[in-house]
Design brief:
By secondary structure, the chain is of the alpha/beta class. The chain is 41% helix and 10% strand. The protein contains 14 helices and eight strands. Strands 1-2-3-4-5-6-7-8 form an eight-stranded parallel beta sheet, sandwiched between helices. Strand 4, helix 7 and strand 5 form a beta-alpha-beta unit. Helix 2 packs antiparallel against helix 3. The structure holds zinc ion (ZN). Zinc ion binds next to loops.
Length: 365
Amino acid sequence: METVNIINCHTHTFNRAAVPDNFLPRFLMPLARLLENKGISKFFFNVFSKMQKHELALLVKKYHAFLTIGDLKSQLEIFKYLQSFYPTGTRFCVLPMDLEFMQAGQTKQSYIGQLDELALIKQDQDYKDFIYPFIFVHPERKGIFDIVRKYIEEKGFAGIKMYPPLGYYPFDERLNEIYAYCEKYQIPITFHCARGGIFYKGEITNGMLTHPKTGQYIKEQKNKFFTDTYTDPDNYKYVLEQFPELKINLAHFGGFDEWQKYLGNTIDENSITWYEKIVALIRKYPNVYTDISYTMFNADLFNLLKLTLEDNTLKGKILYGSDFYMVEQKTSERQFVTNIRAYIGEENFKLIAELNPHSFLYNHL
Ligand SMILES: [Zn+2]
């Protein structure tokens, strides 16, 4: 059998139990409950299809798929489902989430419970070679550095995941000992780096209205938009000045909106886009990567991706990732990988899904 070396660098297997009670806005809860039901979703899908409202029918299908996966009873079940979309032997970075500090209520499963569930899969003979679990880092989690070391050194975890819009800057000093450790051992860190997604829902205090590094005033606005301040790629300048060899992945390549802005398809004011900011960081620092997960659900972006892959520096730093099963809200996993692979061709796909993930994940010291 031909060995497959594909690595999907960005996937999730956490289920509903890891998500806080007030995660969805209250008005969406009844809708979510409806769409979760197969019979009801099928009914609406058929009605919309008959009415020739194909966009709406597809939307029903997508949200039903998304909600159903989140409802599977274990991370292993979700992982097996993910495997079904890829050739046997494909490997996956699985990124957990610590949503206990986002001020959206309690989670049924503790964060450590979520990690231990992944640790069990990592010990299972049938799965251990195919799963690369990461450790989520929130600076407010007590003893987080010890947690990191334990799961890296004793449980075979492969890297770190962070999500600044949950309410912390990447240059938060509480993260320094983790950065020093990761830089020393070349442990990869993946940061969410696109507008939107999940965000801190608590109060925005006066102290939060000044950027700690630039001193700039940050306009008070809805949390959903305010928290983009934490996500901005500019924040990594301060981290990389201090830890220039740190191996990081700025996930989502800045996000769909920023790619559209770069392409000139928005009426936003002329500012440097996150696409350009990430490109600049990659050119400046040796171990900065980016992944195309979620963002690449829309084929409008494929030409720019293809051209970016023509650049001699950038082509070695782009990682394949899908953002399973978050991306189900936009497209199915199989559609996602099929579109990209067919469009960029086998040679480029090998680069982003095999060679680059290999240098991102493995220690070359
Ligand atoms: Zn993700």
